[in-house]
UniProtKB/TrEMBL annotation, chains A, B:
Residues 16-458 form the Aldehyde dehydrogenase domain. Pfam families: Aldedh. PANTHER family: ALDEHYDE DEHYDROGENASE-RELATED, SUCCINATE-SEMIALDEHYDE DEHYDROGENASE, MITOCHONDRIAL. Keywords: Oxidoreductase. The keyword Heme does not apply. This is Aldehyde dehydrogenase (NADP(+)). It comes from the Bacteria. CDD domains: ALDH_KGSADH (cd07129). The keyword rRNA-binding does not apply. It comes from Pedobacter jamesrossensis. SUPFAM superfamilies: ALDH-like.
Length: 528, 528
């Protein structure tokens, strides 16, 4: 139990303010600890330190940065049970889930460490000089990716480890060579503090510069606003609601010097069930879908909030199985009281809408902040009158949409806004027949799944956890997987730079043995 | 001589409006032709056609898109002398320059064609499934780049061929698989019309869809505003002034669905002369710099608008040579009357500022729109009082800044905003001694040149013609070179997609024999 949690500002801690915010046990409502709210001076100090540290950190080799990331992973493992206990209490999530998430967090850090050790991610491009070329000689041009500078990361509520203080955004920004200032999410302040201390221990033990990492506590809009508008913050990463993400984006693009905002704002992740699959797999579909909607109390960005099927002979049987399966699901404690309130209000609103049928409810106990799973059913026409039914309702709920025909299905797909994922269940012949549906969906999402469920995001080199607006504010990026590192770098080119002054990645000798595009050809060769 | 120039809307032409704008011979002020102004209906029609055509064009193979780009190049060459004559008259630029620019334009189109034929640019990434993995099986995940949709390109005044209707932005957007709507620059309407027709001929002969390309004429803010705000426009490319570029950016980020704006807004491109170089190369530096400032009447984004040197024994000799060399330079007709007016006003303002010395003037004849080259000299302290002296003045002018010490040089560098380029002239020992200057400059620019001049931008795979704001609105991109194609695509991933439904780039067989990142390893292998 912490008495007063302090800001972590580089290698110092600080608690200037008398104003406090509390860490709350979401299952009991009990206060677990108090945290001092960051003052303007503390914010400035954190960014100032990050800016100074960046001049050192950006020059540190990939191998040494990898050691830092690996040390963070080790330090997190080293916190042992205290981390699990506190994180479960703050988030309401069960032990198994938090242990799994710790594994994922550590795995992500190691994945980026491996990427740095291999080194080719920097996209080195070399065009050698040709003094004989007419009419003008060709200069020597060499380019590679370089980090931006201090990056602001907002901790996310729904992944208190994997997308919070040492989560994917922090790991990828540190890997890119940026210093990081994290705004702790109020839903898990004590967890954040533990992880922040672990990062700092790792920074000290691997001799990283003071200021490579800071962690600040405070009110979202106030502290977030100060940081987003700070002239020395060069980019922002955020995972959370559309409202908060869009507000951050709007602030950032209105700065005197606009900065990129990588906001992953969730989506409805529509699931389409094609006719043959409906006929052949109705039991496993009903089971799999119910599980995906209620997994983690529905608190995933990739939670399937909409299922679309075509009315057919097989449909009533499928709907009945869905009802039966969904009645077996269970609710649970939500991440925060606010999330619970907002879920309940959304459910209440939908329940009261004309044309919206309550198809099934899951089990739950009427305890503090415990969400009850609920499945709604509508006819597709209602989407035209109430397009908000296709918007995300964060929690264990989904809307089953009955379409009249293939044409209707295609119309629904065409009218979709940007989503993180879309899923299609179909037999081989379904998929061929509905190729036009796939063609539309791939233009609406970051990830198109066949015969699966969108929850569960593989952390790998090919993952795209992103998508067109409003799923994210930058459809060119992913926040999961190795490509997430690209968000924090920009290309720089050197013209006629003497070899010895070039970064190692671009030297003739190719001392790091990385892949490079040399005069248009990809190779690992030494340049003579 | 055209009577009334018409909008090119896919394969149709149209001139609904009575309102006209004129093509002007910038040297004589004579009207060369009238062009009908695009109506709202015509704008909608062009975007509607682009949107429909996109559904076909995005599926066309890289090899066939390459044929289209090569056909555009051939059609441009086929216009022969008419293009050169009209372009010279509208732009005031000499024949040799326009011929060279035509070569560059054609070369760019062919460079992108080659990129498409090779095919690896799509960044294919494949992670194969592993059903044995615990605790959860690994799905099959495959990702690649996909085009956005219709792209709006603003023709630039200063490269009436290479950065206008069929210039780098159009070539890279078409190569990416996007359909393009160009807003013709009012400075060269007849040139634009000729090129637009050439593109359409190429589209027809290579059987591209109607709507893959359109060209509209009209008033900048009105027509530009309609297009930027059009909900079906998915990205914008622009080269021009900070004012216009920033206005476009502000509109685009305030849309209901924000879209990316790639605005290259020019910069001052500071040139630093280090002490030994000043001593050893003063004659060639004076000559080279004077040439770079006045090349193309100073109408380049990379024109060096500031030269910084350290006061030393050798300095007065250098300044004297600079004076002598600059007096040999010549002015010429500027691209438009407005550009001339704005240059003249800027020169007048600087001439009248206390502390600003007029070091030298070039030759010119007092004809219509003819700019006079002028070199100003200031002490570095004045930059603190008048930071606008470090802003771009578009035309054949530059500011010579005398610094007091190395410390002063470093301070100036630290205070720089984002620029397209920075240049350092130094001997080997200078460069070692001023390594900290290079470290600062690489963080301020897209391209760092050693012992050269920034004018002349090599079109190649390693070029970065971009840089931090305010040089551009997206420092992650380049508008010159093959990497410019990346501006118009986003990654999409497929999870467990049947092989036969995958794009060729991601199929097991690797039918296009492209480089792919397979389970983290780069290779061209077939997946078994």
């Amino acid at each position: 139990m912490i008495n007063v949690g302090k800001q972590i500002i580089g290698f110092e801690t600080s608690a200037d303010a008398r104003e406090m915010i509390s860490s709350i046990n979401t299952s009991t409502g009990e206060k677990m600890a108090s945290f001092s709210v960051a003052t303007i001076t503390e914010v400035d100090r954190a960014v100032e330190k990050a800016t100074a540290a960046f001049q050192i950190y950006r020059k540190i080799s990939g191998v040494r940065k990898a050691e830092f990331l690996e040390a963070i992973a080790d330090e997190i493992i080293g916190i042992e049970d205290e981390l699990i206990t506190i994180c479960c209490a703050e988030s309401g999530l069960p032990k198994g889930r938090i242990e799994g998430e710790r594994g994922r967090t550590v795995g992500q850090l190691k994945l980026f460490a491996d990427l740095l050790k291999e080194g080719s991610w920097l996209d080195a491009r070399i065009e050698t000089a040709n003094s004989e070329r007419v009419p003008l000689p060709k200069p020597d041009i060499r380019s590679m990716q370089m980090p931006f500078g201090p990056v602001l990361v907002f901790g996310a509520s729904n992944f208190p480890l994997a997308f919070s203080v040492a989560g994917g955004d922090t790991a990828s920004a540190l890997a890119a060579g940026c210093c990081v200032v994290v705004k702790a999410h109020p839903a898990h302040l004590a967890t954040s503090s533990l992880i922040g201390k672990a990062i700092n221990k790792a920074a000290i033990s691997t001799e990283m510069p003071d200021g490579v990492f800071s962690l600040l506590f405070g009110d979202g809009p106030v502290l977030g606003g100060l940081l987003v508008k700070h002239p020395d913050i060069k980019a922002v990463a955020f995972t959370g609601s559309f409202g908060a993400g869009k507000a951050i984006y709007d602030m950032a693009v209105r700065r005197e010097t606009p900065i990129p905002v990588y906001a992953e704002m969730g989506s409805t992740n529509p699931v389409f069930i094609l006719p043959q699959a409906l006929l052949e797999k109705s039991q496993s579909l009903a089971n799999g879908f119910s599980g995906s909607v209620t997994l983690g109390i529905g608190q995933f960005c990739t939670n399937p909030g909409m299922l679309i099927y075509e009315s057919a002979d097989a449909a009533p049987g499928f709907i009945q199985k869905l009802e039966e399966e969904f009645r077996q699901t269970s609710g649970g404690v939500m991440l925060t009281g606010d999330i619970y309130k907002s879920y309940t209000a959304g459910v209440e609103k939908r329940s009261g809408m004309s044309g919206v049928e309550t198809l099934a409810k899951g089990n739950y106990t009427a305890n503090l902040n415990v969400a009850s799973p609920i499945l709604f059913k509508i006819k597709s026409d209602l989407l035209k009158i109430h397009p908000d039914l296709s918007e995300e309702l964060f929690g264990p709920s989904s809307v089953i949409v009955e379409a009249n025909s293939k044409k209707d299905i295609i119309e629904i797909a065409k009218n979709l806004s940007g989503h993180l994922t879309a899923t299609v269940h179909g037999t081989d012949s379904d998929l061929v027949e509905y190729k036009d549906l796939l063609d539309i969906l791939e233009q609406k999402v970051g990830r198109l799944l066949i015969n699966g469920f969108p929850t569960g995001v593989e952390v790998c080199s090919a993952m795209v956890h992103g998508g067109p607006f409003p799923a994210t504010t930058d459809q060119k990026t992913t926040s999961v997987g190795t490509a997430a590192i690209d968000r924090f770098t920009r290309p720089v080119c050197y013209q006629n730079m003497p070899d010895k002054l070039l970064p190692d990645e671009l030297k003739n000798e190719n001392p790091l043995s990385i892949w490079r595009l040399v005069n248009g050809n990809l190779n690992k060769e030494v340049i003579k």
